[in-house]
Amino acid sequence: MAKGDFVQQSSSNVNPAEIDKFSALASKWWDPDSEFKPLHDINPLRLQWIEEQIGGSLQGLRVLDVGCGGGILAESMAKKGAQVTGIDLAPKSLQVAKLHGLESGIKVDYHCIAAEEFAAAHPEQFDVVTCMEMLEHVPSPSSIIQACQQLVKPGGYVLFSTINRNPKAYALAIVAAEYVMKMVPKGTHHYENFIKPSELMRAARQSGLYLQELKGLEYNPIRKVFFLSNDTSVNYMLSTRK
């Protein structure tokens, strides 16, 4: 059964191979010409969309970035004036995030902890929770979605981004991105872990989140730029509210 079917896992919601994969690349998180170039390229678009979805500035808000990695999005939100916490299960990535924060002078509170465990200890403490490019890397996406719902305050916002599961997504996100254009390392994604928008929206509703907007994120290979659109057939983002 595909991971997109959102089967709850009784074991710890982590794939050691995924942690190892990102740990091996940890030193390259902040190199805009490295394997993380796509994340650097889409970050301004993600940040702009997040601000639009919450109806204004991040200034003064308590924000949690689930699966923060090396801190690219977390730092950009902190730079906007948010009080940001980042959690991840890859210690090497977090070490890079902390070191970069010392260099940049941008304060983010990082923790190496599972979303479910953090939610149990910090229920309803955040105005905004982001979980970007992370759900397709865990055994049980629904468990992460439920944790995000627990973490956000009533009336707060939870924002997700992931990859659709269909032939076009396989062709572009795996074949083209990993093997043809080599935008990301081979093996970065696994098709069976991709998540259809209908599956993500259903899991969000079932956890107690109200849907706001579904937005596509496309790539123009000729101009080599990403842009927001209404095409959610490959990369997409979903905003919700508690």
UniProtKB/TrEMBL annotation:
Q: Which reaction does it catalyse?
A: a 3-(all-trans-polyprenyl)benzene-1,2-diol + S-adenosyl-L-methionine = a 2-methoxy-6-(all-trans-polyprenyl)phenol + S-adenosyl-L-homocysteine + H(+); a 3-demethylubiquinol + S-adenosyl-L-methionine = a ubiquinol + S-adenosyl-L-homocysteine + H(+)
Question: What metabolic or biological pathway is this protein involved in?
Answer: Cofactor biosynthesis; ubiquinone biosynthesis
- Extract the Pfam families matched here: Methyltransf_23 (PF13489)
Q: Name one GO molecular function term.
A: polyprenyldihydroxybenzoate methyltransferase activity
Q: Name one GO biological process term.
A: methylation
Going by the UniProt record, its keywords in alphabetical order are: Methyltransferase, S-adenosyl-L-methionine, Transferase, Ubiquinone biosynthesis
> Which residues participate in S-adenosyl-L-methionine binding?
46, 67, 88, 132
Q: What class of enzyme is it?
A: transferase
Return the EC number.
2.1.1.222, 2.1.1.64
Q: Which family does it belong to?
A: Belongs to the methyltransferase superfamily. UbiG/COQ3 family.
Function as written in the Swiss-Prot or TrEMBL entry: O-methyltransferase that catalyzes the 2 O-methylation steps in the ubiquinone biosynthetic pathway.
| Record's protein name | Ubiquinone biosynthesis O-methyltransferase
